[in-house]
């Protein structure tokens, strides 16, 4: 049974990936906004921002930009899922000897693959802009793990949006708040520089702990309790989003 599910998921993931390869503008569009923001903050606004850190501003900025890149990318997951539902693809799959969950997991794994490519492109541009790190292989693996977990958590939120949306615009618009959430965090400026209520929200929302953890790993500094707070947020969001998405999927396909 497990082999059957894995085989079906692999085939359907290949189908979704081929759609992206035939339309590379998806990844291009995903990375344009984060790269534009990085250029804007590094070359226009960065000189006026005081982070209290000795590292260059592109080093300070990059963790938040990576999260924005992923948040931008998962909008396409909701969009593609919605189009498949409207096109009757899922109903056709149900009439075939295919594991029911494989169609959903194919979209999730496609999202992971596409977002990892986008993240790699953004890191490449950051290196051109002067980003440097002494992070060890273990630190890079930890960063990759956090970004993958972040991608999975947001992708299952995208699945919920794709399953419950009534229009194409509604399927992808849910990601806009997620894209702007890093702006009210420690991604661009220290939370201590913000007004009281805003600083409180920025300090305790999930993006700040994730950004702080990735930034510390890049800078080869102690991560402290931030990594545990980040993991708690990510695992919690992932578990809840997954449960809700599966419940919606079963109800819709029943």
From TrEMBL:
Q: Which InterPro entries match?
A: ABC2_TM, ABC2_TM_bact-type, ABC_2_transport, Nod_factor_ABC_transporter
* Record's subcellular location: Cell membrane; Membrane
Chief site of localization:
membrane
Question: What keywords are assigned to this protein?
Answer: Antibiotic resistance, Cell membrane, Membrane, Transmembrane, Transmembrane helix, Transport
Which terms in the GO cellular component ontology are assigned?
Answer: ATP-binding cassette (ABC) transporter complex
Transmembrane segment boundaries: 27-49, 61-83, 104-131, 137-161, 227-249
Q: Does the keyword Transmembrane helix apply?
A: yes
Q: Which GO terms describe its molecular function?
A: ABC-type transporter activity
PROSITE patterns linked? ABC_TM2
UniProt name for this protein: Transport permease protein
Organism the protein comes from: Glaciibacter psychrotolerans
